[in-house]
Amino acid sequence: MNPQFQSLRPSGAFIGASWASLAIGMGSYLIGLWNSSMALNEKGFYATILLLGLFAAVSLQKTVRDKMDNIYVTGLYTGICWVGLGAALLLLAIGLYNATFDLSVKGFFGMAYLLSLFAVVTVQKNVRDMSHFPSPSLDGFKGDVLEEARVD
User: Fold this and answer.
1) What is the count of structural domains for the chain?
2) Distance between CA atoms of 63 and 123, rounded to whole angstroms?
3) Which of 22, 45, 127, 139 is in Cβ range 3.0-4.6 Å of 119 for a Cys bridge?
């Protein structure tokens, strides 16, 4: 890892808040879809746009972070990530603009979508940051515990 980009271990509160934000954003969006009076094909469109956006955001965040860590990433893949995220946002904007919802419902879907995108990037960042730290283990206790637990 590049020393100028050394990461600190994320706190448990930050990890919990990012996972909670993702659950709230996605949950709100999906509950809104479930309860809407849209046709099933429209619901499928909005659900697919959510999945595309989440994947593109995570993938783009990973490519940016890989470049920061001096891991080679092709320009083509980075471009595909940008196009995927842009397409997801554009399709959502066009879909909401043309939808017959009240303005408050359009705002709800837009904000839940953006919360989900932000949260998924934060969750991915936390997962990556945590991978740089050793996981807690019982290596230091194995000998003592096993010796005490051994019955001859």
Assistant:
1) 1
2) 15
3) 22
**54, 25 in Cβ contact below 8 A?**
no
User: Quick check: is 97 in a domain?
Assistant: yes
**HEC per residue, the chain:** CCHHHCCCCCCHHHHHHHHHHHHHHHHHHHHHHHHCCCCHHHHHHHHHHHHHHHHHHHHHHHHHHHHHCCCCCCHHHHHHHHHHHHHHHHHHHHHHHHCCCCHHHHHHHHHHHHHHHHHHHHHHHHHHHHCCCCCCCCHHHHHHHHHHHCCC
**pLDDT, tens digit (0-9, with 9 covering 90-100), for 115-132:** 999 999 999 988 888 877
Domain range spanning residue 110? 11-127
Q: Looking at the domain assignment, is residue 104 inside a domain? A: yes
Distance CA 28, CA 81 (A): 25
* Cα–Cα dist 10/128, whole Å: 10
Tell me the CA end-to-end span of the chain in Å, nearest whole number: 48
For residue 82, being part of any structural domain is answered with: yes
